[in-house]
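Hi there,

I know you've been waiting on this one. I reran it after we fixed the sequence typo, so this is the corrected version. Both the input and the resulting structure follow.
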Amino acid sequence: MQTSKNRQIVSDYIETVWNKLELTSIKKFLSDDYQDYSLIPGVPPDRNGLLLWIQNTSEAFDHSTIIESAVAEDDYVAVRISFKITHKGTWRNIPSTGREAIVKGIPFF
């Protein structure tokens, strides 16, 4: 079933690129014309901007993305995630606090 395959691709992307930080693998998951409009202003909304975002996030936080649930239909996949972080480095001029947090979200692919 294509929806199961799409769900697996998203799961593999999150595990490989975000959790294992195998950043060179991003081309395996995202096309050359990928656009991400959820990135902050000043970061290009393309694959390179996302790589920059992941690198900066990883310098400031130990992090792990956990997929709590996923829904796939046609070419779309939505995942409910928990993004567990520990603040280990400077983030937006805020020095490391060592604090832990969980950020929840529902990204669509």
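Quick highlight: The mean pLDDT is 95.

Best,
R. S.
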